[in-house]
Amino acid sequence: MVQSFEHVPVLRDEVVALFEPVPAGVLVDATVGGGRHSEALLAAHDGLRIIGLDRDALALAAAAERLAPFGDRVTLVRAAFSAFSEFTSEPLSGVLFDLGVSSPQLDQADRGFSYRADGPIDMRMDLSMGQTAAQLVNELPESALTQLFRENGEGRLSGRIARAIVKARPLTSTLQLADVVASAVPAAVRRRGHPAKRVFQALRIAVNDELGQLAAALPVAVGRLAVGGRCAVISYHSGEDRLTKQIFAHATTGGCTCPPAMPCVCGAVVQHQLVFRGTRRPGDEEVGSNRRAGSARLRAIARTLAP
């Protein structure tokens, strides 16, 4: 089963080092995938126990096999990461979010995530529930599709792509959808990379409510940290990174509403600080061996004061 969900963990060494100073206790791997990050963390830090969440049953099966040597230090749960607080009530040593889609999900054509392999237009992380991307593609009004693509960076091309999709309905396969998108954009755009990349990304994010999940889960994760605990987010999309930055900024100012140049008089109490400013990114060597790591951005925050 592990071989069918072989995923290279992005920024693995940086993640292990990041959680090295945290106190002993529970670390929530909110997107455990095949368990590679959790495996490295458990091997490096004897005082950690892992609660690993994932919506993908195949990912959890792979994680269970990979993490079996760690015995009762691991608990795996099939759930969206926004539900992690339902499975532990204690202060947390750490929380890790590795967002986006994993390589095995992209590589399995029948999951519908890839614009390079033919399959059903599905894109659900959890195949047992929820609407598929095909439903969005074939049922959303043109205006809603335009907005969806615009929010994902398509800009002025959003309307052209949405009109082409509506005109070509019904669409049933990923390559059919990718061809429709490609035919809707100018040749110059096609030469800069596959024009369906951001369209597929937008549909996947919408189908799985990824930004909504992050908006719900990340403030709770930050608030649940023990003193010295850390929360780290690896994002692959500007919307995810922007949302993470905003939530971390709120935490590191205590929600202060006073003008930046003036003393705080609103009573805000700062309980967190950034582990480092800005983001960390994979090096050239890592990107060279794993091209999908190229868009990764890592941010991290630590609790410094008890609530």
Provide structural commentary.
By secondary structure, this protein is an alpha/beta fold. Helix content is 39%, strand content 15%. It is built from 13 helices and 7 strands. The protein has a 7-stranded mixed β-sheet with strand order 3-2-1-4-5-7-6, with helices on both faces. α1 (12-18) packs across α2 (36-44) and α11 runs parallel beside α12 (238-252). It is globular and about 55 Å long. It starts with 11 loop residues before the first helix and ends with a strand. The mean pLDDT is 92.
The percentage helix is 25-40%
Structural class by secondary-structure content: alpha/beta
Give the neighbour order of strands across the main sheet. 3-2-1-4-5-7-6
Name the shape in a single word: globular
Uncertain runs with pLDDT below 50, 5 residues or more?
none
Average pLDDT number: 92
Strand content: 5-15%
Report the end-to-end length measured between terminal Cα atoms.
42 Å
Please report the total strand number as a whole number. Answer: 7
How big is the Rg?
20 Å
- Written as H for each helix and E for each strand, in order along the chain, the element string is HEHEHEEHHHHHHHHEHEHE
Largest sheet: 7 strands, mixed
Number of H- or I-type helical stretches: 13
For this entry, what is the oligomeric state of its chains? single chain
Summarize the structure.
With 307 residues, this protein is an alpha/beta fold. It has 13 helices and seven strands.
Provide key terms for this protein:
307 residues; globular; 7-stranded mixed β-sheet; 39% helix; 7 strands; alpha/beta
